[in-house]
Amino acid sequence: MKLKVSHSKNIMMSGRSETIYRFLSDPFLFSSISGHMLILEVYDHAKGGYVTLDKVEKPAPMYKVLYVFGVPEGEMSTELGVLRGPQIIQNELTYEGEIGEKFKWRIAFKLTPADNEVMVDIDASQEEEKSILNRVLHITKFNFVYHITEAHIVPYLKKIKSKCN
What structural domains and CATH numbers belong to the chain? Predict the structure, then answer.
């Protein structure tokens, strides 16, 4: 059985959308801000597989990551998975990830400029296989997209507001 969860958040920021895009479009910075993804390897088109950064020739926006589920004051677990992105189409920037078929997530950032401000719309969703294994791994107990949006991304965007002019 699939369990689907979604979360949306809007935040008004002063500054230019190009500057905000620059912050959000770096997958290494994004994974670090999330606090729950560690990039281990990047997909290399030339080699047809994942390699460490020092060996990459033709990188693709696809990464082997270690996901951390839970919070330090509670139970935590880790799982290997994939991070893809960012995919940029017009004024929307999207990251997606998965752990095989048992867990998938997506976060999209839509930036809408208005005068000297930018509205950042965050649309996040996750889908997971509801199973005993996922409960044991603490995936089901953890609302991943809500947590990384509210506890990591939004505070980061508020912190960089002054740097986006």
Answer: 2-160 (3.30.530.20)
